Amino acid sequence: KLLDALHFQTVVCLPFQREGYGAELGLRITPLHQEIRSADLLIAFGGDGTILHLARTVALHSVPVLGVNLGSLGFMSELEVDELDRLRDLADWSFDVESRMMLDVSVLRGGKSVYNNIALNDAVISKGSIARVVRLNIFTEEGQLTKVGGDGVIASTPTGSTGYSMAAGGPIVEPTARNLLLTPICPHSTRSSSYVLSPEHVITVEAPDANRKFVYLSVDGGKAFSLKNNDQVRVSTSRYTTKLVRLSKKSFCEILDKKMGGEVTKA
Amino acid sequence: KLLDALHFQTVVCLPFQREGYGAELGLRITPLHQEIRSADLLIAFGGDGTILHLARTVALHSVPVLGVNLGSLGFMSELEVDELDRLRDLADWSFDVESRMMLDVSVLRGGKSVYNNIALNDAVISKGSIARVVRLNIFTEEGQLTKVGGDGVIASTPTGSTGYSMAAGGPIVEPTARNLLLTPICPHSTRSSSYVLSPEHVITVEAPDANRKFVYLSVDGGKAFSLKNNDQVRVSTSRYTTKLVRLSKKSFCEILDKKMGGEVTKA
Amino acid sequence: KLLDALHFQTVVCLPFQREGYGAELGLRITPLHQEIRSADLLIAFGGDGTILHLARTVALHSVPVLGVNLGSLGFMSELEVDELDRLRDLADWSFDVESRMMLDVSVLRGGKSVYNNIALNDAVISKGSIARVVRLNIFTEEGQLTKVGGDGVIASTPTGSTGYSMAAGGPIVEPTARNLLLTPICPHSTRSSSYVLSPEHVITVEAPDANRKFVYLSVDGGKAFSLKNNDQVRVSTSRYTTKLVRLSKKSFCEILDKKMGGEVTKA
Amino acid sequence: KLLDALHFQTVVCLPFQREGYGAELGLRITPLHQEIRSADLLIAFGGDGTILHLARTVALHSVPVLGVNLGSLGFMSELEVDELDRLRDLADWSFDVESRMMLDVSVLRGGKSVYNNIALNDAVISKGSIARVVRLNIFTEEGQLTKVGGDGVIASTPTGSTGYSMAAGGPIVEPTARNLLLTPICPHSTRSSSYVLSPEHVITVEAPDANRKFVYLSVDGGKAFSLKNNDQVRVSTSRYTTKLVRLSKKSFCEILDKKMGGEVTKA
After folding, report:
1. Closest approach of chain A CAs to the CA of B121, in angstroms?
2. What is the ipTM of this complex?
């Protein structure tokens, strides 16, 4: 949404494509999907939501992204809006790039792929707003992992662990860890526990009541895809990654503490 | 749904209206809303879902209901299907009636009531399936109680505490306790905790983003009512109660242990 | 601990016994247990811990207590240290008194009572620091309620719900609600859920492995009492209450929000 | 405890040291620490507790262990007692060995190591039974990770994730995943969440109130070690591993489902 009004211009003194808000500022706007091909780096103003929205694009083109946080809470954004002078560090290309694991998410229907996406945060399979309980069968390539009766399940990356997964009771997974995370949403009949798996698994989720109950797949909070009874949602580690520019030496621990409202100082 | 094919007949030897399944059995079926007026007692075959469906009707007519459990898990049903001979105890009217607290649920829009219902289990205010986070402001008549950013909130009776509320992490409230229970659903920014309140409070829930985010009210798992920005959902203890027939001397403790799969024996 | 150095003096212009810190200030100190008999009101400087420590004494003598918070987090304290001028309101006796439910806690051994106490917050039955799992059988007068295998169980009042019980995952119970609350501590084999009961129950906790595993009872965080195999810990609503002086019109909701670090404003 | 009466004998037809119960059976018993040096494989009768007890010994000598479950719940045991005929598969050495990650646990006091151990499940730093809250500062080599105010913290391996860590609300980590898991125990002031970290971190836990509050370290549920104020508990991935013999092709998923009481079938 924030990106609807995005425009792009080449900033002469810096070796990357710059994005900014507002055509009303008299700036020339060019489409992201054109510019990204020749871009060396993307600066995303807005916050984690903006990065999430751009993740697929930058990952497919292997362009690193630098987030500038305009909002309230950001795990992926590197700079706050009052730290913009640190952008000068980009000039001499003195920054680290952190590769964040992504998920390949697809839906198989009658043997054919009917949906394909990549996720930086998560793939959520959940009930429609009317249904009360949805039943999901969850497999790895080794066999059935568990069944969930409840609101749904979240398959997430370490990056996504601090998002919806945490709200559903999941653990905080360090972003540089390599894990697939499965967190049930309001499970009715099983002990409420997340599963932390090795990254080489292929997870399959089936919703046998999907026709009757309205079950949806949503990737990184995007547009919901409606599932049918015999659909198989496949989730696995992607070969694509989101490359985040790191200008500071802030560790995940420091960011976590700072962003989560100073638990460390409060405790 | 189960009740669509319900029929009623007077069983001569027993002083109550009997309901059963199946017109295909050659039985005469009469509408529930007619028969309920002259009924002394209603037997609900099916399980807790059936009782839940009937709760509004029996409460308004103050007719006690006896549940016969045909399904898997029942906290409100009194008899299992293999205990039907205990119905003979009804003949000499030797049974207790347990009154279960209900909720008055209404929606105020521009000062007018646009929705009214009574709930035996719960009133759920939650996001549509597409929205990611809904923000709710929750008040009692004394002032603001809390804010919830997440999937929504469940206002439930003690009876409803073992339903969706428990799946969302809420406590088990003894059915004969007199409490209003508020349980947030996957809260993003607050400590995940239920609120147990005295029964005399009037709870108001407002959803300031309702227009943009699709926020719904659902009572006892029934049809979703779509909320608007300035709507006020009011929840308070109802003067109506659901009267459950108790033939056995089973306490809540025993039922709980039995129905929840023998935690007591497993632990 | 804070109270070790407590002293008492009669303040001439106000009709109650005043307590303060520090004999080093040259103030005459008299024992609390003497002064309490003739006191009309007790002012406790320190915080909730101080009130908790004094609760048994003020309850037995039915003396209302006014807490002045010197520490970080207080649900029971009425005034912050910078609000001391509000004590003038006491002069014309214009304040409300809120009665907080307490628990009678006793231990029966071989038919005899070997321990007796009253609790404002909670009675905790838990393992010693070496034992890994303790097994507890929990009954009401109606029969077995549940078994807990884990670190222990907390029986708490509504007042105690925001203490250790909340840390163990229990709900927030409004202080004026009348409920007994049971919260298992790190339960191993059962679904982690609190029980909210009516206040008229008598709860019995038995620890069949107590001899071998070191199981302790601690009331309001006080000195641990070592349990034996056939001991029965009895917990029920006390006829005593702690009377808290309320000078402000702050509701529980406001206090909760303020004390819990502004969840309402953050959410 | 179960191992107090263990004896060892060489079974001629099978290429490994066999252990069994009961000197009373007239069997010759030899000490484990002698026999382990020349053993090719150890069979542990008893359950996960037995394996846990033996883990340090078999890891240091790099001897694979095969668990035979005599108890109720086992994640590490390979065979149930009624599957003993599968031991014949050992004859032709046709089995897989699964290496389980272990933890190096040490305590630094004044720059010197005063405690050293290796853990298959977990290292628990927790309060004594009397103390109410212990404050812990938790660091990685990159800086402070979090503070915990509560009953303590559990540092566990993936293997240990289904033990005490799960009781404290932690996630299930697949045994073959490579992660360090930190789970706070009944945290008072922070959001209750586990941390899943990469295996290369060195975790340091400090207990600044240890002198006054009695804080203990316990490795794999063993003898508690009393911590002092300036002690640093160090936890990191060990170069040692516990090698578990796998006769069946049962995956973790299947074992998990079976051992956890058929969540899959119940859901």
Report:
1. 13
2. 0.86
